């Protein structure tokens, strides 16, 4: 019991200590193409071993959507040296924790251990890469797991399908048009050979980034990495998605229905540049101005002052190929969805025509300074950022200097970004309605 309490204390400390100074790191490649990033920090006796694979929903066959997310689950089934059902037991026996997640652009696995178990984490991730057991038993088991997840998180969740409705209307060519959870019919129809081929194509060292961060002895960890990952064969080069969408030139009007809601919603979505562009960062600032906190423009106007909305928000969804800028509102007191659209548009027009005040701009800069510090405040956060900046942005040094981009953004750029991207003829307007409103 004492050992467990000590381990829990370590992990909590690892997730809460603040590190505002520069993040030092070392990066190199193995001969098989595996990109390695090491970050040494002895603040707490913990270590994270993580692997990011450059495979997400956008890399799937349009007739087999959901594969990347499915593999997030499937690759915990077991390996040639880790028996089925033993993965989580091994992690917990060393006082650790682990998880994985999938997006449109990548899949990410990690283990957090006391630092004396770093070799266990490296061994397990090398096993996942080299020796996964992919058989019909595992596929059938995880098929049921994914179906249950979809029922709980999407199908039976209020507003659970709204983002999927946005994506399929915003993208007609690019594979961002489907969600990572994918189609259950596609997964049911897939053969074992298709799953094996997907693994062989994407889960290879030259399509991955390994990050080891925390209380580590760098020379010892380098040797472990070479021993465990060096012998893994390089895979064939992955051909990347390169599909361009036609510009949106007139408002797309769409309606969707949800049996799990009582209150309708209106959502506006604008297609925006890729995450590594300067304009994507400017649009981050626009969303903060409009809806970050109770003093933000949309919240103060629609929720506090006019009491027209139960909830309102604006957020910038940054991804590797395209982004989306979204506004979302729930009406209050019989307010029509058309009136919500009008009020939101009025606030956007103000941003397009007037510079924000110096005081508002100073507050905005402080918000982003705080976010930057918090993003590097944990070992887990640092590891995820190192992998993301290397793989999706192509510049790992952004972990230390991306804040300089935000600092250099001007009030004029905020106005110009709103003018360029947030216009009614460049958007989707989606009314998301209760099922019983269907005629």
UniProtKB/TrEMBL annotation:
Query: Is the Zinc keyword given for this protein?
Result: yes
Outline the extent of the Peptidase M16 C-terminal domain: 190-366
Q: Which residues form the signal peptide?
A: 1-20
- InterPro entries listed in its UniProt record: Metalloenz_LuxS/M16, Pept_M16_N, Peptidase_M16, Peptidase_M16_C
One GO MF term on file is:
metallopeptidase activity
> Which Pfam families does UniProt cross-reference here?
Peptidase_M16, Peptidase_M16_C
What are the protein's UniProt keywords? Hydrolase, Metalloprotease, Protease, Signal, Zinc
Please give a single GO biological process term from the UniProt record.
Answer: proteolysis
Q: Which family does it belong to?
A: Belongs to the peptidase M16 family.
Please report the name of this protein according to its UniProt entry: Peptidase M16
What is the species listed in this Swiss-Prot or TrEMBL entry? Planktosalinus lacus
């Amino acid at each position: 019991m004492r050992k467990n309490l000590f381990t829990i204390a370590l992990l909590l400390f690892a997730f809460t200590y603040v590190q505002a100074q520069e993040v030092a790191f070392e990066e190199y490649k193995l001969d098989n193409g595996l990109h390695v990033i090491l970050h040494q920090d002895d603040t707490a006796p913990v270590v994270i071993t993580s692997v990011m694979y450059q495979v997400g929903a956008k890399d799937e066959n349009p007739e087999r959507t959901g594969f990347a997310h499915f593999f997030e689950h499937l690759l915990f089934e077991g390996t040639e040296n880790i028996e089925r059902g033993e993965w989580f037991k091994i992690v917990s026996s060393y006082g650790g924790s682990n998880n994985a997640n999938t997006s449109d652009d990548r899949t990410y696995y990690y283990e957090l251990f006391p630092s004396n178990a770093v070799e266990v984490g490296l061994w397990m991730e090398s096993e996942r890469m080299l020796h996964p057991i992919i058989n019909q038993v595992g596929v059938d088991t995880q098929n049921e797991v994914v179906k249950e997840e979809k029922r709980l998180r999407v199908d039976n969740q209020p507003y659970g399908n709204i983002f999927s409705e946005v994506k399929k209307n915003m993208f007609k060519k690019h594979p961002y048009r489907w969600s990572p959870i994918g189609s259950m019919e596609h997964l049911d129809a897939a053969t074992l050979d298709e799953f094996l081929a997907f693994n062989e194509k994407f889960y290879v060292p030259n399509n991955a980034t390994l990050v080891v961060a925390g209380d580590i002895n760098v020379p010892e960890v380098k040797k472990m990495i070479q021993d465990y990952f060096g012998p893994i064969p390089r895979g064939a080069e992955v051909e990347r998605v390169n599909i361009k969408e036609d510009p949106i030139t007139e408002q797309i009007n769409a309606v969707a229905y949800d049996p799990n809601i009582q209150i309708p919603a209106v959502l506006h979505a604008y297609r925006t540049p890729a995450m590594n562009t300067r304009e994507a960062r400017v649009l981050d600032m626009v969303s903060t101005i409009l809806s970050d906190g109770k003093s933000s423009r949309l919240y103060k106007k629609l929720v506090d002052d006019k009491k027209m909305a139960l909830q309102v928000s604006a957020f910038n969804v940054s991804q590797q190929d395209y982004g989306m800028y979204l506004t979302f509102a729930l009406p209050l007191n019989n307010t029509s969805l058309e009136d919500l659209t009008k009020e939101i548009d009025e606030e956007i027009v103000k941003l397009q025509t007037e510079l924000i005040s110096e005081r508002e701009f100073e507050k905005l800069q402080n918000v982003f300074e705080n976010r930057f510090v918090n993003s590097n405040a944990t070992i887990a956060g640092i590891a995820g950022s190192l992998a993301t900046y290397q793989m999706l942005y192509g510049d790992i040094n952004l972990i230390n200097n991306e804040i300089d981009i935000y600092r250099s953004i001007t009030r004029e750029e905020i106005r110009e970004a709103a003018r360029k991207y947030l216009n009614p003829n460049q958007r989707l307007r989606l009314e998301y309605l209760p099922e019983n409103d269907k005629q």
